[in-house]
Amino acid sequence: MDKTISLVIRELFNVEKDVVLTRPEAQFGDYATNIALQLAKSLGKNPRDVAEEIAAKLREEGSYDEVMVAGPGFINLRLSNEELVRQTLAREIPGTRDGQTIVIETNNPNPFKAMHIGHAFNAILADTVANLLEGDGASVHRVSYHGDVGSHVGKSMWSLLRYINGDIEKLHAIAPEDRNSFMSRMYAEGASAYKEDEDAKHEIEELAQQSFTLDDPLYKEVYETCKNWSFDEIKQIVARLGNKEIEKRYLESEADALGVETVKQHVGDVFNESNGALVFPGSKYGSFDNAFVSSRGRGLYGARDLGLMQLKNNDYHARRSYIVTAEEQRDYFRGVIKAAELCLPELNGVTVNISTGTVKLTTGKMSSRTGDVVEINWLFEKIGEAIAERGGEATDDIIAGALRYQFLKIKIGSDVVFDINDAVSLHGNSGSYLQYAYARANSILSKSTEKNESLLTATFNDSERALLRKMNEYADVIAAARNELLPHQICTYLYELAQEFNRFYEKNKVIGDTEEPKRVALVSLYAKTLREGLAILGIVAPEKM
Questions:
Q1: pTM tops 0.85
Q2: In a shared domain, residues 184 and 296
Q3: Are 9 and 39 in contact (CB under 8 A)?
Q4: Cβ distance 83 to 64 under 8 Å?
Q5: What is the domain extent for residue 245?
Q6: Which of 4, 107, 403, 519 could hold 123 in an S-S bridge, CB 3.0 to 4.6 Å?
């Protein structure tokens, strides 16, 4: 469409000009452009006269029912029915990342803690961004990264060793369904002790150091058992969220030595020594000064993340490597990414940190550092109960649909206030509403025995055309969401599409009407559009609800 107008401009004025089309309110047409106002000054002409010349040529082109000039020189275009259908069916969405190799961490909860709602938010968002990247033509590698050493391990191990009191069988006696909550309680007790008891603090610090060496047999057995529990739980929960599987898991223990070595190689040019610690002067680069290696020579978070970047680069040589984290880590990653680029020029521009807002329930914020968290299994349970209370069937697909959409409908970077009843509502902007909308359309289609009419030769009343016009926006919305990596744009569109369908259905009988073949074709196209959009969000479109 924009290329056609560009050709007309070249023919009329011998000017090469990219044309941007916008979508005005329906009463003004299907598309609008201010290209005449842009051209007028360089052509030395009145913009309305330029618009009239362009409009006259476009009227000859045949794809438009109306070409109107408005105001000082705006051009409004109303497509012919045939052209509107043709564009809607074509859905041409060229990929802009064809051939690019991209790595993205689609989950990164630490073992030895329970997986909570904040972890679910990051995992769902990262998985959906991966879907957008794949749809845009990239070769996407989903990976994960987990902290299996360090302070949080020491806090959990302090509680775990006290709990078993030398008897490992006490650990093995814990039922699988209780392990996530048990691990959460162990971490919370250790975190509290570290904060309130100086003796416990020193003991926890020693236990944290042991996570690097595993030289005590009992410590090692407890450590390995609970780490395996954690990864089994993470895998199960991430799958239940609707995420696609990762292809590789990275661990802090694997990245640590490589990161420390790199830091030591760049003392003096990138890192400074301060009281034995190796510090990156991040305050020079919009971050903060951050120790990457402790005075005891032990790698800290920064060194491990530096090592991880190298491991991922060695494995994939990716054009981009995306990390999705909460906003409080934004400045930290700004510093780590800058340090990596200074140490390793081949990593310049590779790592991108997508910073999210904070997840809150209506009761307020959570903290994984204190153990005051909303466990994801608890949230699954509560969403399931809310679905059952409104008479629905609480399958994993319906629960995941409610959960995913509630996170994805908010623009990245904004806080999410999670309301369980809103998430499962069938009457508002929710995943359950859209899943129900698809099931409803599928039910209508199942009642028809008519052969669908070809929409290319059909005529449409106002509400039929309004639905078709909304479906015509699909390709543009998906292209924009892929380009900007903003899934909330798809959520907004699908909600508006479902509302448009409701207006259509209120005014038009489908089954048993003389127009049934055409209207069934419209419903079928609507269902297809809804299903494909939900799939990008990682949400299953159920045949019935």
A1: yes
A2: yes
A3: yes
A4: yes
A5: 101-361
A6: 107
